[in-house]
Amino acid sequence: MQRHRSGGHTAAVRFRTAGFALLAAHLFLVAWITLRPLDVPWVSAANLHPLAGIRADLALGWREGAKRIGEGLVLLAPLGVLLPLVGGRTQVSVWGSLVRTVATGALISLGIELLQTGVPGQVVDIDSVLLNTVGVAVAHLAVVPAVRARIRHRSEGAPLLVEEPAQGRTPTITRVGIAP
Fold first, then answer.
1. For the chain, which residues make up each domain, given as ranges?
2. In this protein, which residues make up the domain named VanZ-like (predicted)?
3. What is the pLDDT of residue 74?
4. What's the half-sphere exposure (Cβ side, CA atoms, 13 Å) at 135?
5. What is the DSSP letter of 88?
6. Is the Cβ–Cβ distance between 47 and 53 less than 8 Å?
7. Ranges of residues in the chain whose predicted pLDDT is under 50
8. How far is Cα 133 from Cα 127, in angstroms, rounded to an integer?
């Protein structure tokens, strides 16, 4: 019989708990940034045409355009790392994990944009959803597969299961025929 080592289990629980706390803090910060009312003299129209806002940002100049696009990419990018951390799985398909994480990031971004419709001074922008989703995907691809591979490599050196002392040979039957 085999027993599970308790040290690996408690470390996984600690990582998941820390991931959940960081995820909650990040989502609170994102909500504070994106859902607080702004006191502005005028508000531009909602952008429902994909890439129109990005073209308008780039028309302002490369520096200002890159700053605005970078802000859109970075806002939800930590979700690309925090969502898999909360999931806590290391033996998972790279593509399956990417699809789940990006889909969740896109839904969170879409939810934020929908909530912004009721906030004074905030404007709905479909390009924000696109940039946020790309940011989540880039962060996930840049960090998660390498970290998972490192964790798997580390756990190969230290077995997670510890065997009990042997209690003797298991009896075997050489041949079993079909009963008449």
1. 2-37+47-162
2. 25-143
3. 97
4. 22
5. T
6. yes
7. 1-6, 160-164
8. 10
